[in-house]
Amino acid sequence: MAKPRPVTWPELLDFQSRIVGRRQAARYGMTRAAVGRRVKSGAWQRLHRGTYATFSGVPPREARLWAALVRAGSGAVLSYETAAEVHELIDKPAAKIHITVPISHDPARRGPIRGVVIHRSRHLASEPLPPWQLPRTPIAETVLDLIESAATTDDAFAWLTRAIGRDLVTTGMLTAALAGRKRMRRRPWLVDALADAADGVMSPIELRYVRDVERAHGLPHARRQARRELDGGVRYLDNLYEAFQLCVEIDGRLTHPPEQKWRDADRDSDNLFRDDVQTVRLGLRHVTSGRCQQAARLANLFIRRGWDGEGLRPCGPDCAVNQVRP
Fold it and tell me: What is the domain extent for residue 192?
């Protein structure tokens, strides 16, 4: 196999959005004094210690990302929210640039890096990329990092479903990446969450419905994201109970509505689709503080539509499901 030719100085600048480190410049014959003269003249500008933009003016976002990587040193990759930005998992850059380096390397020994959060890893995964693309953790590893660092399980599930919903990753890819991690915060929860996502649960509020209303009270199992032709168009229903002609829609817009909207949502529950599928529309209050009341209400609907109540169970001694009689 032919040995790859060396990268030329113009190519290096082009690959790195015209960002260069002092050591890189030295490898191409540029002395420290020559770098200093360019900075003093204003032709170059210093972005971090030993890291320069070879142009004047405000550096664009990609140049700032390259500057952080060059300052962090060999083996550094974008990670967490910044890798999510490059993978287009998020639409707005985070305030801080997140970079992961091998555990043996500590860039902070040369001083802190302004605006950059450094993570160190024993098993750093980097996506194979050509030299002109920003090094970053693979999308599956990025999602697992964000799930692990999320403040709440709702936030963690939001990362999971956003990545799947944008067709950036599959549950199979995440399961494989998870198997390669010896340590993972929330591992048992995540295994269940991946199964729920594969079943079609696509938001934290939908997950609360499935786990805390349907499953916790032994209600029938729905078909998630069911494709239906309704009113002359196609809709995907959150939870369709075909045997009972019942649909439960989880509406994130009802998270904190005025009281009048709660009454409107309750009235919506009595509306019928044209094919006689009754729809019940629930918001955050219904699946959190009101989860037992909604479970009892749904159980009665199922029973009126032919369910024998097998498996129905209260989640505790004060659960409203205790009052349901099949």
Answer: 143-199
- Give the pairing of strands 45-48 and 19-21: unpaired
Residue 104 has pLDDT above 60, yes or no: yes
Distance CA 203, CA 207 (A): 6
User: What is the three-class DSSP state of 45?
Assistant: strand
Domain end among 137, 152, 177: 137
- Is 180 found in the same domain as 161? yes
Alpha-carbon gap, residue 76 to 219, rounded angstroms: 49
Tell which residue, 289, 285, 286, 313, has the closest CA to residue 220.
313
Tokens for 263? 């009454």
Question: Contact, 200 vs 182, CB < 8 A?
Answer: no
Task: Say what the pTM is.
Answer: 0.85
Encode pLDDT of 61-103 as tens digits: 999 999 999 999 989 999 999 999 999 999 999 899 999 999 8
**How many structural domains compose the chain?**
3
Same domain, residue pair 209 and 318: yes
184, 240: one domain: no
User: Side-chain half-sphere of 323: how many Cα atoms within 13 Å?
Assistant: 11
pLDDT digit string (tens) for 130-172? 888 999 999 999 999 999 999 999 999 999 999 999 999 999 9
C-alpha angle 183/208/213, rounded to 5°?
Answer: 130
d(CA 240, CA 226): 6
% pLDDT > 90, the chain: 76
Pair 163, 108 in one domain:
no
Bridge partners (DSSP) of residue 51 are 21, 48
Rounded to an integer, what distance in angstroms lies between the CA atom of residue 21 and that of residue 47? Answer: 10
Do residues 67 and 154 both lie within one domain? no
Give the strand pairing for 19-21 and 51-53: antiparallel
